[in-house]
Amino acid sequence: MDIKTQQTKLANNFGKLLRDKFGKGPEAIFVTISDPYVLVYIKGFISAMEQVLLEQGQDLTVKTTREYLMKSIDPEIRGQIKGLTDLDIQHIYYDWNLDNRSGVFVGVGSDLTILDEDNRTHYNGQSEVNQEIVSISRQAEKAPDETFSYKLSDRTLIVIRKGILVPIEKQLISLGFDEKLRVAKRQLEGELLLNSTHFASVLNAGIQDVFVDWNFELDNSVISFILKPNE
């Protein structure tokens, strides 16, 4: 089965999974397979109950509820990817943009990073992207110990950060406040990423969406950019 067919089948499967679990499926799903990564971009996704909550200003409630729901379907997402692509997904990172009614899943194989000589690590603007990520990370918490970025396709780019947690965050995680910390960090870093005009300039592309998630246990993070290339 070629990659395009795999991507189409995964998009269909994930649409049904979300419809079954949330009561409403997304309007569109786009899947990018680039071993060891699988990026799933979701558009037009909001349930009737979530819409009511958002109209009442309960954004935090919606975000927190989705955190728990995503944990419940994590094994099914991995299983479907494994069944269709034979990729052994070790971790899944996800985030939502409620204003855009969009979201992303990023499935990662055995290692977050790939070899330097891989052509996905060499794209126009890479150094500038990494530098801007370090600057934004420093504003939000601290500069990462390591920063890598990979352009998976003309429309998808991911950034890996390792070593980003500060001591107070580690303490909050140890006390069981990891989900509240995740929601707070998403709001803070999400705004910083969206407000930066640097990425569109150096990538010569519009920034359609930006998402960020963390694995607190491994002390790393995945940032996903959905791009709209300039003509």
Unreliably modeled segments: none
Number of strands: 8
Rg (C-alpha, Å) = 17 Å
| Alpha-carbon distance between the two ends | 32 Å
Average pLDDT: 90
| Bulk shape | globular
Q: Order of helices and strands, N to C?
A: HEEHHEEHEEHHHEE
Instruction: Summarize the main sheet.
Output: 4 strands, antiparallel
Spatial order of the strands forming the largest sheet: 1-2-4-3
Descriptive notes:
It contains seven helices and eight strands, in the order H-E-E-H-H-E-E-H-E-E-H-H-H-E-E. It is 44% helix and 28% strand. A four-stranded antiparallel beta sheet has the order 1-2-4-3, covered by helices on one side. Strands 5-6-8-7 form a four-stranded antiparallel beta sheet. The radius of gyration is 17 Å and the shape is globular. The chain is α+β, with helices and mostly antiparallel strands and 231 residues long. 32% of the residues are buried. A hairpin with a 2-residue loop joins strand 1 and strand 2.
